[in-house]
Amino acid sequence: MSRYNLAFAFNSSYIGKFKVTYNSIVASNADKSFYLRVLYGDFNDEDISDLTRFITERRGKVDFVKQDPSRFSGLPKMAGDENYTAYYKILLPYCLCDLDKVLYLDCDIIVRGDISPLFESRGKFICAAADHRVNAVRREHIKELTGSDGAVYFNSGVMLFDFTAVDFNSGEFPTAEQLFTYAKSSKDRIIWHDQDILNAFYWDKCAIVGEEFNYHTTYKSVKEFIFRKKNKNAVIIHYANWKPWNSNYIGKYYKLYKRNYKLLKGEKGVDFLKRRNIFAMTKLLFKYIGKR
Fold first, then answer.
1. Contacts within 8 Å (CB) and 24+ apart, 41-49
2. What is the pLDDT of residues 223-263, one digit of tens each?
3. Is the dihedral of CA 82, 76, 90, 68 positive or negative?
C-alpha cells in the first residue's frame, strides 16, 4: 500500500471540519495509507489524543507541530480567526522540508477521487490551481505582489510541495524571518492573507494545475449560478468563501458535503452543520448579485 504525505493547518474550532475532510480523502483513496503533519496553535492534550485516534483508525499516522500565534501579531486577521491560523501556511515549507512530496489541504474541502495525479513530478516547487477570480479582477494587486505583468496567482487551499524538485536549503528560497519581515512591512496591502505572501515569494516556482484539483464552489458569474454549472471531473471540491455548514450557504455541492458529514454521525466534534435558512440564503444571494 502506497503512503502519501499530507499536511494541514488548523486549530480546535476546526477539528470537526478536519475530520470530514480527512475521512473523504481516505474513503476516495482506498489503496493508500497516509502520513500527516498538522500545524496547530491551541490544541490541548485531549484534542491531540482524539485526533491521533481518528487518524490512526483511518490508515494514517500523524505528527503535530505547534505554532506560536503571537509571531503573527499585527497582521490582518481572517474573520473569526483569532489565532492567525491561515498564516501558519507560510511556514509549511520549513515544517515539511524533511519529506519528499507533501499535499497541503484546507479543512473546507471534500475529496471525491484519486489524489495520486497531483503527486506526479512537474519540476516545480509548488503545484497549485489558479485562483480564477483574483486573476480576473485584481491584476494590479498581483503585479504589486509579484512584480510581473504575467504572473498567475495561485490559490493556497490546495498545494503540492515537491522537495525533490529543488534544493530548499540552497539559499534560493527565503528564510522564515524574511517572510515575516515582508508580511509585517506589507500588511497594509495584504488582502488574501497567507495567499498573498505565498504568491509574492513563490509565484514563479509554481506549476499551475487544472481546477479539478481545487474546484471552488462559488460562482464565476450570475449565469453560472442560474444554470448551476459544475465540473463533473472535479476531484477536490473546495468550499472557499461560502461555507456549507452555515445556514446561508448558496454555493455548489451542498449535498456532497452533507453526505460526507453524515458519514461521521456521532464522531466527536462533528456537530457543526446548521440547517439552511431560506431568509439567510436570500440575503446572501442578493449581496452576491449586487457585487456583479
1. 41/11, 41/66, 41/67, 41/68, 41/69, 41/83, 41/84, 41/85, 41/88, 42/11, 42/12, 42/69, 42/83, 43/11, 43/12, 44/12, 47/12, 47/15
2. 777 777 788 899 999 999 899 999 999 999 999 999 999 99
3. negative
CATH of 2-214, one of 3.40.50.2300, 3.90.550.10, 3.40.50.300, 3.40.50.720: 3.90.550.10
Q: Please report, to the nearest 10 degrees, the dihedral formed by the alpha carbons of residues 245, 251, 256, 262 taken in order.
A: 20
Q: What is the DSSP string of 140-152?
A: HHHHHHHS-TTPP
